[in-house]
Specification:
Order of helices and strands: HEEEEHHEEHHEHHEH
Shape: elongated
Strand order of the largest sheet: 3-4-2-1-7-8
Oligomer: single chain
Number of domains: 2
Helix content: 40-55%
Strand content: 15-25%
Distance between the termini: 26 Å
């Protein structure tokens, strides 16, 4: 079944010039490189991208990120720990997520910036999270939550630049993943980040298989 899903996903990418984006615990992006592209014989260990053999002698470009929905989970875990230290017990961390989204949606904009690479990345294992433009006026959940979501997308784009997508002929983004399923703020950041149509729905379920398949391959190499 998983192989069938992956094959369907590959067909979806090939036929529609789509980039597959999945944001669940981690995150993956994948798209077909133009005909004639040949990767280097020796992969660059410092490159955030990997290339896998594809149909008709072409290659699939993949960025497999360590930081995705787990960034929000880490943030929620920190909030829970802080409250516990103050003697407030939270029975279910899941009850915090809707409050974060509600606070973020009430805040129209934020100048707070977050680099959320708290888990490092495969090509930059020593990288850490950072914050900037911090002021007394942007430390509320309404500011921090969208800044985290924007940071996740900024990290994605830094690893797979928009210009590379456009040069490869990508015409739309096919998006899925559990983090996008519940996080409306993250979905909004996806749509802001890509100057292309973003598609959700049944097409996603099959298309995401190819990115996940390649991500599994990367994980086995670690």
């Amino acid at each position: 079944m998983e192989m069938e899903r992956s094959e369907n996903g590959i067909s979806c990418v090939q036929a529609s010039h789509s980039q597959v984006l999945n944001i669940s615990t981690s995150a993956q992006l994948a798209f077909a490189m133009p005909a004639g592209f040949i990767p280097a014989c020796v992969p660059d260990a410092l490159s955030p991208n990997s290339y896998f053999p594809y149909f008709s002698g072409s290659y699939l470009a993949v960025a497999a990120l360590l930081n995705g929905g787990n960034v929000m989970a880490t943030f929620v875990g920190m909030l829970t720990a802080w409250m516990k230290e103050r003697g407030v017990e939270i029975s279910e961390e899941s009850t915090i997520y809707p409050q974060l989204i509600q606070a973020a949606q009430a805040q129209l904009n934020t100048d707070l910036r977050v680099i959320p690479t708290v888990l490092g990345e495969r090509h930059a294992a020593s990288s850490q999270g950072q914050g900037s433009n911090i002021s007394p006026w942007n430390l509320s959940l309404g500011h921090v939550t969208p800044a985290l979501c924007r940071g996740i997308l900024d990290n994605l784009i830094s690893m797979m630049p928009l210009q590379k997508l456009l040069e490869a002929g990508v015409e739309r983004v096919v998006a899925s993943g559990s983090a996008l399923g519940w996080n409306e703020v993250l979905k909004q950041e996806v749509e802001k980040a890509f100057p292309l149509p973003v598609v959700y729905g049944k097409d996603v379920d099959s298309a995401v298989g190819v990115a996940m398949l390649c991500s599994d391959g990367l994980s086995r190499k670690q």
